[in-house]
Give the backbone structure.
Amino acid sequence: MSGSITFTMVKPGSVADGHAAHILAKIVEGGFNIKAMKMCRLSKEQAEAFYAIHRDRPFFASLVSSMTSGPVIAAILEAENAVENYRKYIGATNPSEAVDGTIRKIYGKSIEANAVHGSDSDANAEIESDFFFSKFERF
Ligand code: UDP
Ligand code: MG
């Protein structure tokens, strides 16, 4: 399969609620090919670095707290136009505004606990993939 990549995480709330396997199945059903995957828990420093672009936003401290509250499942996905198509597939940042059938609509609980992360550009997909995975962990 050819295409481009995006980076995703199943966020801690969804892992804790037991939704990870369902979400991963839905990702694969959507035509996204898993190129790398692992479960890990972010440190405060790692979460702050990952979300550094949001460091001045009012929700930053709470976001870092929720993203470090338990393990995530991180993955690199490949598909045609992966970044844009995956963001469509997961739905709007706020689950209440997400289209029916999207991952965030189904599994999101709030604008913060919105089930999954999805990269917002090809450049950030590479940066975020490199943040989590060495070349030996990418297939
Ligand atoms: N977030 C939040 N409150 C907001 C906006 C965002 O808690 O008002 C959280 C939410 O978990 C979101 C993350 O911060 O996924 C990153 O925000 P961004 O605007 O990049 O949204 P995304 O790209 O994840 O849709
Ligand atoms: Mg974003």
